[in-house]
Write a structure and sequence with these properties.
There is one protein chain. The protein is of the alpha/beta class. It is 33% helix and 12% strand. It has 6 helices and 5 strands; from the N terminus they run αβααβαβαββα. Strands 3-4-5 form a 3-stranded parallel β-sheet, covered by helices on one side. The radius of gyration is 14 Å and the shape is globular. The chain starts with a helix and ends with a helix.
């Protein structure tokens, strides 16, 4: 995320977690919270439907200044999130949660990339989106 922020890529967090839960989690990840210009939680009053629907991602893009969905990359650890990102017309990077020991592995087939870690993401991919 630091590399994306250094390139002035706007960052949003779109989580199914309710705001109090999200805030608790972010207490341990303050830098991530600082980098995000927008946060949309599962209990947001403007959110109509949760994942796997695209609503949360489209709302985050709107709050980033009406970012074009095709110019957005979603980093997601759940198959429902990948499904929602693709339904929103966004690129999707799957980061399968290791706690599920590969049980979801086959469920990420709609993702544009499947990575083991954010470190593996090639930020030069952004050049394609900036064009």
């Amino acid at each position: 995320m630091e590399r994306l922020a250094a390139r002035n890529v706007p960052i949003a967090i779109a989580t199914s977690s309710v705001r109090p839960s999200f805030d608790k989690k972010m207490a341990y990840h303050k830098r991530i919270a600082e980098l995000a210009k927008v946060v949309v939680c599962g209990d947001d009053p403007e959110l109509r439907r949760g994942k796997p629907n695209p609503d949360i991602f489209l709302l985050a893009a709107k709050r980033l200044g009406n970012a074009a969905p095709e110019k957005c990359i979603v980093f997601e650890d759940s198959p429902a999130g990948i499904q929602g990102a693709k339904a929103a017309g966004m690129l999707a990077v799957a980061l399968p949660d290791k706690r599920f020991n590969g049980k979801n592995a086959g469920k990420f087939h709609r993702a544009d990339w499947v990575l083991n870690s954010l470190v593996e993401f090639d930020e030069n991919t952004l050049i394609k989106l900036e064009a």
